[in-house]
Amino acid sequence: MALTNNEKVLRGFDQLLGGMRPWVDMRMSAQAPAGKDWVESVAAEDAAKFGTSKTYSRDDVRFLLRLVTERWKVFEKDLSRPQSALASELRETANAAHHGEKFSSNDTYRALDTIERLLTVIGATDEADAVAKVRMEHQREVFEKQTRNRVARESQAVKVTGMQAGTAIKPWREVVKPHADVIRGQFSAAEFAADLFAVANGLTAAPEYLNPTEFFARTYLTSGLSDLLTRALKRISGDAGASPVINLQTQFGGGKTHSMLALYHLFAEGLTTSSLPPAVQDIVHDCMPASEGNPLSSLRVKRVTLVGTKLSPSQPIIKDDGTQVRTVWGELAWQLGGRAAFDRVAEADRTGTDPGDALDAVVRDIVAGGESVLILIDEWVAYARQLVGRDDLPGGTFATQHTFAQHLTEMAKSVAGVMVVVSIPASDSLDNGGGGSALEVGGPNGHVALEALQQVIGRNADDWRPANNIESFEIVRRRLFEEPDAAALADIAAVAKQYVKYYQENTGFFPRETTTGAYEQRVRAAYPIHPELFDRLYEDWSTLPKFQRTRGVLRLMSVVINALWDAGDQAPLITPGTVPVDDTQVFSEITKYLDDNWKPVVDKDVDGEGSTPKQIDRERPSFGQRALTTRIARSVFIATVPTLRSAHKGVDIQHLRLGTAVPGDVINHIGDARALLGQRATYFYEDGDRSWYDLAASVSRVAADRAAGYSEADVHAAIVARVKTAEREPKSSFGAVHAAPLDTGDVPDSEVLKLVVLHPKYAWGKDASAATSFAERLLLESGTGQRQRRNMLVMVAADREAYPELEGVTREYLAWRSIADEAEELELSPQQRKQSVTRARQLDAAVDDRVRTAFTAALVPTELPGQKPTISFTRVAKDGGSLAERATAALKAKGWVTPVLGATLVRMALEGALANAWNKGHVRFGDLWSWYTQYPYLKRLPNRQVLEQAVLGAAEVLLWQQDAFALADAYDQATDEYLNLWIHGDKPEPGFVTDDTLLVQPSRAVAQRSRVIDIPPDAPGAAQDGGNSGSVATPPASASPTTSLAGPDAQPPAPAATKVARRFWGVKTLNPNRPAADFANIQQEILAHLEAADGIELEVRIEITAAASAGFSEQQVRTVRENAAQLKFEDSGFEDE
Question: Coiled coil located at which positions (predicted)?
């Protein structure tokens, strides 16, 4: 019985569990406390965080996925951010699958594909292959279902009618037949991919790859492959002058692995020369003329196959006898001579060091015994790049891998009968732009590995030529179509002659080479695919990053042929103009290689029922009878896809005609239809004789080019101009705003609380960043001197993650504004002028919005008593007033700015951080204010007035002896008395304070007042009974005229020990439209800091209140109740009031 989609997905997760379990276990074990199981550690941590008691298991794939996504630091060296996103996606999918949710066919494919990708990333190749089989079977079932349900649709074919019998050009479908798998649509990348590992280990059932005779029977012998076989036969048969090392360095999909398979099969044990195709037999006899009958029987060859994607430097291979093989050289020795050979390099394998002479001895002993050695290494870069930057893997280090490569090639060079063949992706400079090989190389580590291997192998290796374009055509044709019989060959010759005759009759309208006999031969060789379509694919499409030179052509053409076959296509050849772009499978295959969304462009201006070309064809019968405009649009699109970002976009008129025209077309109609399409299509462009499609209006392309051309300084200047507007906006708690200072001296060291908006080049990131470095300098320095007022600084920087978007939209704005300003010079049309003005205005607003979004990283000096100041971070909201207002709100929420201060808080500071100064009996106000401006362990006040009001507020503190202080104008050291002493209750109350105003300890003030009015200091109410009408006490008569008015020592106080906070609570109402975003901020800014405390006991509760004036529907009530129960809400319910 066929599996359901849910069962397929669950099988995929079973394989994911098998691959992830050892991978996660190894990394988590390395992080766990010594002697403790990491699963138990995670459970204990979660119990402490959430107050729950859960049991976790290594056998729960959802638990493993959660670890990968939530404990990023553990896995960051192994997974990039995009790769980690695979695990994030699979968390939700796993929950859905294990809860029995139904999966659509598309969702099933995505789930299996994502599982396969993640398994491949972590090196679980066996499990990835198993999932791939499930996915391909799923694809086959889906396609068969679609085929059964497909209704007859309008043929998109080009029909050549009106010719008499015997003279008409036969449709290609009547001449040749695709292979059965292409007709059924049962094609996949794997079927078109040679797999050296699978063949060498008997893991494929395909006879064309597994059986040497079948393989060579289906292999087209290119000149490059003939040369490779010749070199190998000479070297293996003992020719010391033949190439000992060959580097199969080609473009992406250039046939490297297929060529290795040819070498592998050529030296298969028991292969007879007579079983090979004549062309291969000729090569064997030419290389070994002295041998008669079966020359291959005289060769005894040890074959070694090492495939980098099937070897993992982090996971040893366990052989049948239990031997663990860790390194490439260990596997090489094992394949050469099993356990006995491996034992000779076992120590080097165990330590991950180069085997040196031990491996040489193994090889030389084999050769001395009359055997030759063929070593095939495929995908070496894929293996080596995993070693870059690592010194903890069983497979050794990258440096050792480099040494081994040099050692291996030198050994092959020195020992006759030994040959090493290595496949390395072509470097970017050899790759027509580098896209394919850059993808195959695999990121920065891959480039390091590629460069090193190229250098060491290139010293001793001979290079190898891939198939040329003509040979590539034959390779593709043989794979997609059955071989034509004699009658078919006659029809093919007639079609080729008819096409070239048509080109000759219209000389000047087509490229010159199409009128020659050589081009007629090309048409015959490529039949039923027009050479122009092959040229576009091999010359242009092969430059796309993801398009493989041979496999990509096979994939694309297989879906094109399948669609045309099902549609009953009657065209004589398959041309760019007959590619059914609107077919779902074809368009899906094309878009795999595109980064942009072309669907709207295709639907509107290329193909499909409502498209502009179809409308033109319906309106013009002379065009529509032959679908002429539609063919033109398809030809231009096929030419546009790979050339959009090149200097020569699209296709010239001669090659457009070549990719479109069918004998019988009126040649001038092609130009007319092109012109009409250019007039009516939104995305169709013409420039002279070239045509192309684009994703936007042509003026948009000008803007894009200009945007890319601006320097970083230009962008910074534009952003700084925006940032400087903050200097003129409402400043809230700040006395001044300084925008984009380039030097610490640009920010004055004043008593005003300053908001410093950092220059955009100083962006902030969670790790070390330019913003933090500049903030630390600004905190300590003011020009060439030291900064004193360190508590009067707050900085806001651009977030490093948000800045690229700000930079991009700024570039766009500058470009569109310049276009609008230069409308006359650019000769813009009225529509284009309007568009440029509108776009510039939109982007102007967008830049303002992105500035608000980017400049959200507040950097604030903080300090704990007894420690050095540090720069702390908090997030500034993007909405809610000016930058200063939003920064104030963020700082207030953290307690990092205090716009209103009470006398009680001043008293707390005096008894806390300032206790050393306060214990002297009084503190001078000027000194107190100076300390508030200097030391971040004190409250950060917007200005002096806040502290003045706090001091004057002592008059309102009822329990003033506990929570406030007395005031005085001066202190007489000689008499130990305060002049003009004021205590709570005295009238009039103080109206202002000066630098010399003294804050006096209540005990000392009460003692002095008691002496004056003869009330015992400890008498009830003594502090309140201040004498007549609250008059300030007069100094004793004995006061000397030379009384000292000096205040306390004004040196910066050493902070006293502070009380330790032991409990936190907080309440916040979340935005109901985006509660997840608010909660994420709470998690980052609050919970993360609380969790870091030792011995933390953390409880987080969620309370939801919802009221609907019209009431909730029965469905809503039922759904919410069920979900609340499923989520184990402690309490929930609905009410009718």
Answer: none
